[in-house]
Amino acid sequence: xSPFFLDTNVLVYSxxxxxxxxxxxxxxxxxxxxxxxxxxxLSELAHVLTRRLGFSAAETRTRITSISxxxxxxxxxxxxxxxxxxxxxxxxxxxxxxQIVASALAAGAQTLFSEDMQDGxxxxxALSIRSPxxxxxxxxxxxxxxxxxxxxx
Length: 153
Known about the structure:
- By secondary structure, this protein is an alpha/beta fold.
- It has a single domain, classed as Rossmann fold (3-Layer(aba) Sandwich).
- It contains seven helices and six strands.
- Strands 3-2-1-4-6-5 form a six-stranded mixed sheet, with helices on both faces.
- A hairpin with a 3-residue loop joins strand 5 (122-123) and strand 6 (127-130).
- Helix 3 (39-51) packs antiparallel against helix 4 and helix 5 packs across helix 6.
- 32% of the residues are buried.
């Protein structure tokens, strides 16, 4: 497989007890030798683990260390921030999503796995955005069905 970049949401699913299919896909990606993350992704994951999922600081540190040991980690530099502003202006993503895109480009990734960005979009002719969960559903032949929001009809 070619080098690929993981968005924070994919890493969050690697801890999702209530989503075993997505958890398995996310863990397989994180454990791949070709996985790349940024310091931003690790910071965002630490925030989610401690605030939303209730992990202790010590457990979060252990999880972040494990991920950073198994993935290539790209630091957010002034050059990445500058390119994020260019991506934001050209592709209309939020600044933080643009910074993830700019980090993936700086790392030379060919694919950015994200559930939140536009699946199938190609950035600068070099980086394809893909939802790892959507394509896994297509490969199994399972149709995607959105669930109705609770209390709405």
